[in-house]
Amino acid sequence: MTTLPFYTAVTDDFEAVNQLIMRQLHSRVPLVEKIGNYIISAGGKRLRPLVVLLGARTCGLADERPHMLAAIIEFMHTSTLLHDDVVDTSDMRRGRSTANALWGNAASVLVGDFLYSRSFEMMVELNDMRIMRVLASATNVIAEGEVLQLSKVRDASTDEATYMEVIRSKTAMLFEASTHTAAILADAPAEQVEALRCYGDSLGIAFQLVDDLLDYTGDAEAMGKNVGDDLAEGKATLPLIYTMREGTAEQAELVRKAIQKGGVEDISLISEAVRVSGALDYTAALARRHSDEAISQLAKLPASVYRDALEQLARFAVDREY
Predict the structure, then answer these.
(1) So what's the pLDDT on residue 93?
(2) Which residue ranges does UniProt annotate as crossing the membrane (predicted)?
(3) String of b and e for 134-152 (b: at least 16 CB within 10 Å)?
């Protein structure tokens, strides 16, 4: 992943963050380290720590404090992954077995709790109440988004507004908190702080929309998860919501029954329905609008290789195939 061009501006920073993450995983309880190392070493794109680094450097911060903030954000994100996989009863993430599949739900939840609490210990080390306030609030919003999504599982009446509320809370919030706190850490002017906050929000929404699009068009091996996973869990994502709203009566009924039932027995028929109904084009266009909005915010920031990388990342968000 790190060969993508928007990583190159902060290659050394990124390596320093990876080393810090491994040091901060230390625990006197071996199983904590074992599970923590397993899920952290699974890799992934590490986009949230990336935008911390790029955001802070864009605002002119030249010291090592962004390394700690980036590690904090990655710990918060990783803890949500551990909890998500338990809630969703997932057995595969990033192309390999989930922690709960290997060590059980109890251990996964508790190590997720450890990573959350360790992230707040690290926040105290940063000694900036402004950052603590943003991240504490973000933690609450993310949890609310998770619960809202859970309450809508197998609910075929979920509308687009509710879906957008879920993804803004569950996914975009941590992107927003990442760029927002990076600007705060840099003591950037208010206009730059707000621009980076809005950039993170729009970027996160674009990423989640494309993730939900790829659930019907992507390659399971490239994505590291099974195609149709959301449908199998009974989640009404935007391609499905649009198909029920704008498709034929037959298409709407097919999707409605699949959401209510869960499972992927009719995945090929549903994939065809979301394509023919225009749902994929609609979702892609909405993702593009949010990517464009993210890019428009960057005009308020000083020109640099870091700002260029943030623009490249926003374009990658909607052009990717995994």
Answers:
(1) 81
(2) none
(3) bbeebbebbeebbebbeeb
State residue 91's pLDDT score: 87
For residue 13, pLDDT beyond 60:
yes
Q: Token pair for residue 160? A: 């687009």
Q: How many beta carbons lie within 10 A of that of residue 24, not counting itself?
A: 20
Report the alpha-carbon distance of residue 93 to residue 300 in Å, rounded: 37
Cα distances (angstroms) measured from residue 251 to each of 47, 65, 309: 36, 52, 41
**Cβ(52)–Cβ(114) under 8 Å?**
no
User: Can you list the domains of the chain with their CATH numbers?
Assistant: 5-319 (1.10.600.10)
Structure tokens that stand for 33 in this block: 């380290």
What does the block give as tokens for 220? 């399971």
Name which of 48, 50, 44, 54 is nearest 76 in CA terms.
Answer: 48
Beta bridge mates, 93? 96
Q: At what angle do helices 129-151 and 173-185 cross, to 10 degrees?
A: 180
Contact indicator for 264, 216 with CB cutoff of 8 Å: no
B/e letters for 173-192, b = 16+ CB within 10 Å, e = fewer, are: bbbbbbbbbbbbbbebeeeb
> In angstroms, rounded to a whole number, what is the distance separating the alpha carbons of residues 217 and 203?
21
Element (H, E) at 312: helix 305-319
- Whether the pTM exceeds 0.85: the reply is yes
As beta bridge partners, residue 97 has 92
C-alpha–C-alpha distance, residues 199 and 220, integer Å: 29
C-alpha to C-alpha distance for 76 and 157, rounded to whole angstroms: 31
| DSSP 3-state of 95 | coil
**DSSP secondary-structure letter at 62?**
-
Burial string for 288-317 (b: 16+ CB within 10 Å, else e) reads bebbebbbebbeebeeeebbbbbbbbbbbb
Locate 18 and state its tokens: 């990876």
Mean pLDDT, the chain, as a whole number?
93
- Residues linked to residue 92 through DSSP beta bridges, in sequence order: 97
